[in-house]
Write a structure and sequence with these properties.
Radius of gyration: 16 Å
Number of strands: 0
Number of domains: 1
Order of helices and strands: HHHHH
Structural class: mainly alpha
Shape: elongated
Number of helices: 5
């Protein structure tokens, strides 16, 4: 039953994040576009705050569910990942898939001996991956 609860937690998190993304797009682009086709900036905004964070964070939460993380741990990971995703380069998220498998293996290797260390170690690895992109985006490098 824990897996079902984790699935619903991940689904609710994705819906909340999508609603938050739509709100940001609506506030950032209040007027209708002057032409029929949306500008490239709108697509870049949609990609950076909605699509890539949804995929990345859903995969991370799913991997935590695979290593028997509790719902509370999944919620902490979702909040932490959402904060990190605010400054993420989404179009470079493809290499993250490899890192997620490394995190999953790291957590699985330590889940029986030190479950808290395994969970927080995975969160730290995830944040270390996001930190360079967050700094580069923040300082516009």
């Amino acid at each position: 039953m824990r897996g079902v609860g984790s699935f619903w937690l991940a689904a609710c998190y994705c819906l909340i994040w999508l609603a938050f993304s739509v709100l940001i797009i609506a506030l950032g682009n209040p007027g209708p576009p002057s032409n029929v086709a949306p500008s490239a900036d709108l697509f870049e905004l949609l990609e950076s705050i909605a699509i890539a964070p949804l995929v990345e964070n859903a995969i991370y939460i799913a991997l935590l569910s695979l290593v028997d993380a509790t719902n509370r741990q999944n919620l902490v990971a979702a909040i932490f990942a959402a904060v990190m995703a605010l400054f993420h380069w989404p179009w470079r998220a493809i290499p993250a898939f490899g890192l997620f498998f490394i995190i999953a293996l790291f957590c699985m290797a330590n889940r029986n001996r030190r479950p808290r260390f395994a969970f927080w170690g995975g969160v730290i690895l995830h944040s270390m991956f996001n930190l360079p992109a967050a700094l580069a985006t923040y300082f516009d490098l």
